[in-house]
Design a protein that fits this description.
Largest sheet of chain B: none
Radius of gyration of chain B: 23 Å
CATH architecture of one domain in chain A: 3-Layer(aba) Sandwich
Largest interface: A-B, 40 and 24 residues
Helix content of chain A: 25-40%
CATH topology of chain B: MetI-like fold
Radius of gyration of chain A: 20 Å
Structural class of chain A: alpha/beta
Number of helices of chain A: 8
Largest sheet of chain A: 6 strands, mixed
Oligomer: heterodimer
Structural class of chain B: mainly alpha
CATH class of one domain in chain A: Alpha Beta
Number of strands of chain A: 10
CATH architecture of chain B: Orthogonal Bundle
Helix content of chain B: over 70%
Strand order of the largest sheet of chain A: 6-7-8-3-9-10
Strand content of chain A: 15-25%
Amino acid sequence: MKVLPSRPDVQVDPAPARGQATAMIEIDGVSQVFQTSGRQNHLALSDISLTIEDGAFVSILGPSGCGKSTLLYIVGGFVNPTEGVAKMKGKAITGPGPDRGPVFQEFALFPWKSVLGNVMYGPRQQGVKPAQAEAQSRQLIEMVGLKGFEHFYPKELSGGMKQRVALARTLAYHPAVLLMDEPFGALDAHTRTRLQNDLLNIWERDRKTVLFVTHSVDEAVFLSDKVVVMTRSPGRIKQVVDIDLPRPRRRAELLLDPRYQKYVVDIERMIDDTSEDELRP
Amino acid sequence: MISPRALISRSAPLLACLGLLGIWQVAALILNTDSFPTAIEAIRAIPSILGDKESLINILASLRRMAIGFSAAVVVSIPLGLMMGRSRVVASFFNPLLMVTYPVPKAALMPIIMLWLGVGDIAKMLVIFLGVSLPVIYHSFQGAKAVEEKMLWSGAAMGLSAVQRMIRIVLPAALPEILTGCRTGLVLALITMVTSEMIARQSGAGNILFNALDMGQYDTVYAMIIIVGAMGIGLDAAFEKLRGRLVKWSEPGFDIPLSFA
């Protein structure tokens, strides 16, 4: 029997079975082939299957060119997989949507909009009244540490500040999943550390599902519940490592924690093995 | 309080004009021929042109044709250029066409157009339209092509449709480049306006100029050149002001980013 909601704006979801985490994203047998300028087809991703649970912070880790960003774009609906299917809450992904909010390495802010204008863009698009959208956006801007910069244009900001704006802009339309594509890759080490800490603080408040692409082992272990290690050419999942470290995580404590250190070393070895594989004929 | 340095840089265009007129004056005095009046004589002839009702009507008619030709060209060219920039199919259809027509002087088409449409307003506005279109299409095309893919993806994730992305992301993102094309187009509009009136001599600023030349009224000829030149400088300056306001967000000036994580 189908349960009809009494009010159309209230969505009634069937309750998940007790003791079983709900799958937010399911990637099922996804392969991606790119046409290269030569006649050859390049197999970027080969038969990837992965389930990401609701509220999990999952990192995809791998060398550059392993197709990890492509996998994220497929979940975002920006790229259609050649084979297989990606699902969000059980429904096949056919295009981008506000339930999946991307944050790119390149920031991709709207340069003609102020910080406030950028953050308000999503809520306004979704029909939130201007006054309300502005109030919410100002709160988010404060949360990412940019209070006082509301009327600055992106070009007046440093890289770290731009990425803070990009994060606030995406959070503003309340996506169920955050898709982060090497978001701190273009930043210097110091800024990177600060943003990682701030991201964790923000995430620990509402525990959104996060899919985080990175090539930094430290970053993946520090942030994630689960690290998906990928191999290169074609991109395959080598191993999924559960990171069993307590939260909230404090960087200073974690760096001294032998368990953290072991995760980092183990995963680095895995990646080294992968590189050796490639050298073999 | 304006510093002396700012005062100099602000009055630079005026000083350049005065310098040019000074050289003209000296050269005319040295050469001393009828066909080259001095700058002062030419400037003295300006009030009589602008005071004459018929000349004024002629100049206003020229400006009207230019405004219509320019506006029509901008309205057609921007959407076409943007579509070319975002769609490979549209680009591969129009780009060869553009490459072939770009170097053709549009005034050279005037005789054919006159043959079809006569010497009236329509023919002249069409030539202006053609002259303005190409740079505006080209710059809109380049601007739209350079729009970051990830910016469009961000918009798509917020729920913007393809048409909304075109109007609300591609258009503003390409605006600095589009306006560069419009600025070139504006100057070309003035040039094709005068040229078209020289070829199809019926009315307009170009016609006054050539009639005066036929009658040997050289001071009027030079006065008209000053008037047309001043119109060009004025329009360009006004457009630059508008452009500066519209794309303030992309202008250099506060180029040093704040150092703060």
